[in-house]
Queue: 2 jobs
Job 1
Amino acid sequence: MSLKYGLLGLLNYEKMSGYDLDKVFKDSLAFFWQGQTSQIYRELTAMEKSGWIVSEIEVQTGKPNKKWYTLSPQGKKEFMDWLAAPEGAVEDLLHVRSSFLMRLFFAGELPPEHTAAMLQKVRAACAEALENMSSVPGIVDNYQHMMPDAERSRYWRMVMFFGEGYYKAIARWADSMLWLMKKQAKKEKKK
Amino acid sequence: MSLKYGLLGLLNYEKMSGYDLDKVFKDSLAFFWQGQTSQIYRELTAMEKSGWIVSEIEVQTGKPNKKWYTLSPQGKKEFMDWLAAPEGAVEDLLHVRSSFLMRLFFAGELPPEHTAAMLQKVRAACAEALENMSSVPGIVDNYQHMMPDAERSRYWRMVMFFGEGYYKAIARWADSMLWLMKKQAKKEKKK
DNA sequence: TTAATCATGTAACACGTTACATGATTGC
DNA sequence: GCAATCATGTAACGTGTTACATGATTAA
C-alpha cells in the first residue's frame, strides 16, 4: 500500500528513473518500508497506466536507456490525499508483526539455553543497529539538496529518533528478560 | 510464513478445529502475527495436503459439522525445525514496517499542526493500548489448562513485556516529538 | 427481533519475495 | 580478469486482504 506513495513522494521532490528511485528508496524510506527492485518497477508501470506518473525515455549510448518519471497533477493529488488521510494511520504504528516473537511464544518446547542465546543475539543486534544509525545524519545531509527547504528533513530526523527509541527499548527488554531467566534458572536448581 | 507455524504450535498443545484455532489465535498470537479467518482455513487445507496435519470430521446436529485437526509426526518435526532455526529470526524483531512513519517522513508537505495532531493521537493510542494490556494476564490464566506446564506461559508473559516496553517507548517518543515541534513553532514566531 | 455464536469455506485481487535475463563500461 | 555499477525488467509463486455465502441456535 505505502510503496506506491513512497515513490510518489520521492518523485514529488524530483524527476527520477526507476533505478534512481530504487537507490534513494533504500537510502531513506527502507528503514520503515521495504521494497524489492522488481516491485518498484512493477508499481511504476502500474502507476503510469493509472496516469499518476508520466515517463519519457532518454536514449543513452554505452549504457542502457533511462526512463525518467515525473509526477502528473493527478499523481500529486493522490499523494496529498493519502498523506492527509487519517484512516488507520495511527493504529498502524502500534502494530507489531514479528516471527521472532512467534518463536518466543512457543519457546517452552526448547531448552531455556536456546532462548537465552537468542535474546543475547537480540541484544547484540540492537547495539549494532544503534551504531549503524550514526551514519544516517550524514545521509540526510547528502539529500538536503533534494528537499525544497530545510524544514522538510526535520521529519526525516523524527523518523530516525523513532528508530533510536525502538532499538533502545528492545535492548532494555532483552536485558531484563535475560535477567529474569537467570533468576528462574537459580530457582530451578534449588529444587 | 509464520502463520503456518503458529497454527502448528497451537495444534501441538491440543486437537482443534479451524474455528477454534481462529479464536485461540486471535486471543494469543494476534498481538505479533495477524491472520484472517479465510487465510487460516486456506493454510489448514494446504498443510493437510502436505501431510503436516490430519483431519477427522465430527458430525453434529443443529450445528455445522466440526473438522478436528491433529498434528502428524511430520508436522511436529516441521514445527520443531522451524522453532529452533536461527536464520533471520533475530533480525526480524528489529525490522520496522509502518505507513505511519512513511507519512511522517513526508509530513513537510502539510502544515505542522496536522502532524502535531497525529502525534497526539499516537500518544492517546499508546495509553489505550497499555490499558487494554491489563486484561492479558487474565487471558493467559484462562489458557493455562492448554499448556502442558506452567513454565510454558512464561514465554507468553515475555511477549507481553515486549508489548509493554514497545508502547511505552512510542509514547515517550511521541511526547518528545511534540515538545520538539512546540519549540520549533516558537522559533518560527520570533522570526 | 436482532445480534451473536457456531462452523465451514470460495473467489478475486493486491502485495511481497525469489530467481532469472541482458550487456556494456569502469575501477581494482 | 573479476566485481561492481548502470539500467531495464519478466515470471512464478507465496502471502495478505476483502468480500461474499450458508443457515440453525441461543441469549439480550
Job 2
Amino acid sequence: MNVEEILKTNKKMELSKRTVIHLMLVSNKLNESTSTTLKPFDVSVQQFNVLRILRGQKGKPANLKTLNERMVTKMSNTTRLVDKLILKGYVKRETCEANRRKIEIYITTKGEKALSSMDIAMNKNDEQIVQNFTEEELEYLNVLFDKF
Amino acid sequence: MNVEEILKTNKKMELSKRTVIHLMLVSNKLNESTSTTLKPFDVSVQQFNVLRILRGQKGKPANLKTLNERMVTKMSNTTRLVDKLILKGYVKRETCEANRRKIEIYITTKGEKALSSMDIAMNKNDEQIVQNFTEEELEYLNVLFDKF
DNA sequence: AACATACATTTGTATATACAATTATTGTAC
DNA sequence: GTACAATAATTGTATATACAAATGTATGTT
C-alpha cells in the first residue's frame, strides 16, 4: 500500500500529512475487511463491539453510559444500537431498580453463542490483516500507536 | 492511548487482535479531530478529499469514476457528494462532449480559495496529530503502514 | 439497422449516524 | 417539601452511507 501510487501524485508530501493520509488508507482497509467478516453474522462492527463489552462484564449488567464510554468507536446513539441487538435476541434490557434512570443491559445465551462464532471469524481476520508483520514489528507498531 | 486501559480489561490479548483494536482507536481519534477541523468550513472529510483531488487535476476535469478510484475513503455515492459541492459553488459539472456518458467535474476559483484556507487548518491538525513522534519514528511508521 | 452488452452516472430505498430536544428520575439547596 | 439543577436514556429530525435498480449512452456482433 503505497500512498503516492494510490493518490497518483508525484510530489513530495509533508511527513505529517503523508502519515495522516496513510493512516486513513490503512484504517479504511481495516474497516472494509472487518465489515465483510461480520456481514455473514448480520451485525455491524459497533454491534459486535457492544456484545464483546457485555461479555466482558461477566454477568454484571452494563448501562448505556458505560457502553458508550467503552466503545472502540464512539457513536451518538447507543439506544438504537441496543434496540437492534434486542431484536436479534442477543441482549436483554431491564430498568435498574436502584436508579430508575438507568437501564441494565445483559448479553443473552443466544448472544454469547453468536459472539463465539463471530470471534472465530474475527480472529482469522485479525491474523490476516497483520500477516505481513513480524512479531517485533507488531510490538513496535503498538508502541508507536500509543503516541497518537 | 493505552488499549487495555481504554477497554478496562486486564487480560492479555493476542497481538494481532490488540493491534487491530489499537488501530481502530487511533483511526477513530484521527477522524474526530479531522471532522472537527473541517467543521468550521462546513465540508465533510470526503468533500475535502474530492476538492484536493480536483485541484490535483490542474485544470483537467475529473469524472466520477476517477474521483471514486482516487478517494482515500471509498464511498458509494459520489454523485450526491458532488451535488453538495456544487451547491456550495466549489465545483462545477458538465457532460463530456466526447463521451456523453461521462461528466466532467472542475474545481471553481471559489472552491480553490476555500480549499486553501482548509489546507492551513488541516496542516496544523496534521502536525498536532503527530506531535509526539520524532521524524525517524514517523518514517518508520510509514514503512510499517505499507505492510497492511 | 437491430440487438445485446458494457459503461458511467443517477435515483430509490433502507439503514446508520450526528446532533438537538425531550422525558423521566434523582439529588440538592433553601 | 418544593424548586431547580443534574443525570440517564429516549425520541425527532436532518443528513450520510450502502446497496440495488434504473437511466442514458456507447460499442460490438450478426
